[in-house]
Amino acid sequence: MKAQQKILADSATLIQAAAEHFVATARAAIAKRGVFYVALAGGSTPKGLYEKLATSPYIEQIDWARVHLFFGDERCVPATHDDSNFKMARQAMIDLIPIPVENVHRMPTESGEPADVAVRYAATMTEVMDGAPFDLLLLGLGPDGHIASLFPETPALDIVDTLTTSVYVQKFDSWRVTMTYPVINSARQVIVFISGEAKAAIVNDITNETITGLPVQRLAPENDYYWFMDKAAAGQ
Q1: Does residue 188 lie in a domain region?
Q2: Whose CA, among 66, 88, 119, 179, lies 20 to 30 Å from 76?
Q3: φ/ψ bin of 213: left (φ > 0), alpha (ψ from -120 to 50), beta (otherwise)
Q4: Interval 117-156: pLDDT, tens
């Protein structure tokens, strides 16, 4: 399925549109099923979204007691480390919203081998969600076309029999844990955030298919699939 492209004037407008979309999606899920399962992403644009959601009027429009937060991927660092996606989301939003602590499901990447962390997180997803898909799964886009921690030429791209997997990313000399394609593709809604002029070249290559086989191009969401972009990213 091709992504529906939403092109906004600038980063601030993109974040506002994303916040409104997030609120609408959360409210619809809670009204229909009584719960909202969302997988968060790292990166500067998602951070802006989280900061916006923690302010009025957005914070009051969601029943946070019915929201369960997960993470699409995480670096294998302590939760207090500056590279931690959880730390970013906690400072930007989680500490500021009235969400029960037991509804925040971080990847415990500081404890045990990465493969063990992946197994435990998959178990947590199964226990909490009982096989339900994510209502919303957020992704960023790297300049190399990676999404979550699904990087080019890594074994994680081909893992389809588990919900999560560990992956060593050679260019960063670091281990990560990431959700796999089956989890992402089964979500009720997938949003890829792309902002800034630095992403214009990769967006152009993807949309014109001058490059193929990138991790983002292997996405095949079964349901709603959006690209939220600003004009700088869509400029080429």
Answers
A1: yes
A2: 66
A3: left
A4: 999 999 999 999 999 999 999 999 999 999 999 999 999 9
